[in-house]
Description:
- By secondary structure, the chain is of the alpha/beta class.
- 41% of the residues lie in helices and 13% in strands.
- Strands 1, 2, 3, 4, 5, 6, 7 and 8 form an eight-stranded mixed β-sheet that branches.
- The chain is globular, with a radius of gyration of 18 Å.
- The relative contact order is 0.20.
Amino acid sequence: MTDIALALGAGGARGLAHIHVIKAFDELGVKPVAVAGTSIGSIIGAAYCAGMSADEMTDHVESTLRDPLGTLRDIFRAGPNSLSTFFKEGGPRIGELNLERVLTAILPDEVPHSFDDLQIPLQIAATDFYGQCRTVFDSGDLRFAMAASSAIPAVFLPVERDGRFYIDGNATDPCPIDILQDRADRVIAIDVSGGSSGDPSKRPSKMDVTYAASQMMQRSIIRNAASRYPDTILLRPPVDAIWSLDFFKAREILDHTASLKDEVKAAVSRVFEVKSQA
């Protein structure tokens, strides 16, 4: 039997496409021996490693986002519970939320608080801000690790633990391919970084250029990582036109990326065919 590991990349709302990957594994009755994730990949990965099915994830996403105003109320209710905590977290500010509190408000109950309670081993990639390097978490406080990996700059506060500050793992490892190489015979990696989109006859706006440039850099990091491990199967759904914070377009995103499920199933089937022929 061939061992398969799964790497789920960063991409904000684009990462909802990862649910199709889980659906493919569910339908095939196959489980990866290990999962690694960055940012949204760490969140979907944690839900999967906790035992949630793709259908359960879809139901939770749709029920959570069905009422945008209610979801926003829940998020803002997750704010600091005392004046001293408020100032410790940065005081008055615009556009920076404490992601650990947000995750507490929106995560399903099935996602545990500790790595120890997961059914499949999980590794989560975050960025140590002052260390300017990737940090991988695989034990301890699971929700802290997810928050550290997913703290999008200027949207969420850097996440602090033991005197270190962490930001979104996409800055250093947007799809953690290398850390799985010794865990399985083959790695399937899903790249949900964005890119340029729109009318190619029109000059792109400043915002479009700034956003797309960062996404192109992430794609380059992922391609370079995959090139070092030629047996890695790298798949990328059509997500260029989706912005990182488009979570309230969840159904549209899931519909637009539905073809990824069949791509993953075909990739898994090829892996097993090659192994059986060997």
